[in-house]
Design a protein that fits this description.
Helices cover 44% and strands 6% of the residues. By secondary structure, it is mainly α. The chain contains ten helices and four strands; from the N terminus they run H-H-E-H-H-H-H-E-H-E-E-H-H-H. It binds zinc ion. Zinc ion binds next to strand 2.
Amino acid sequence: MKAYNEHTYQTFKRNTVETIPLTEGLIKDVMPYFPKYIKCIGGYVDDSKQFWKSNYHWEHLCSMIRRSIEENLLDDRLTTCAKAVLANLENNPPNPITGYLAAKAMGTPKDITPRDQQISRWKTLRQSKKDFKTIITKAGIIGPGKDEKEHVSWYYCVAPVARPGTSKHGCGYALDIQGRDKKDNPLIRSVSAELGSSHIFDEASHVHVEFKNGVNGALSSRVAAANQKANKPVGDGSTSPNVSIAPPQTMESETALKMMCLIKEDPTDPEVNPINAEPTTYLQQAQEAFNSFLTAIDW
Ligand SMILES: [Zn+2]
């Protein structure tokens, strides 16, 4: 496995990313294996911030629905639908009702509505994102021929948001890792799988990666550091004085197998099955890779 050793803790971790000691160790363990242009943009997120994030998405979606109506981007029929979705969202607003989108930091303002009301808001939000996605797809605002980068706000407002209070970011062993654009996601996924990630999936702008069981011991930063000292790249088949390196593996099949195991682990997990029901590219790729692995293997 290739160690780039291009990052320091400061260059890999965006400075807004919060950590607990577990997250900090994790970041240090994985960072040697990512090139300079790939960064960690999310780490530890406590419960109240997860609820805040849900309100941020609520406010953002409301504002984009209003925009689609005000700018006459929808025909009459779709406008009626969009107004219905908006009314449903506005039926259960946070308190204060606004300020999340314009916030300078995650967590403020603090919503004082009861938690069960916040959960039911998230449920409405989940359905509303689905409905509004159908609306703006039918209107041709997103979909075939529309570049995601150019129309990022539209894509973002209908992107799934995890149920607050259940994100593994609250456990400290989940990282959000981002490349230059989505084309870097396959690299992030394969590196993470090789590092022993227990769960990986694509989100709108990054890859969500969990290390429930820590980072694969044989590939930890200790090895990278030892190799760097010995001036040898990790994974070139050589060994450094005190650390043995895992033998080269057939990475493609191993990775595919691991990915499939992750998917099978908990198919009901809302984060594995995002709200936009269709399987993510990643799941499709994993399925395809796994299928070709099965046909290639000599039983
Ligand atoms: Zn995440």
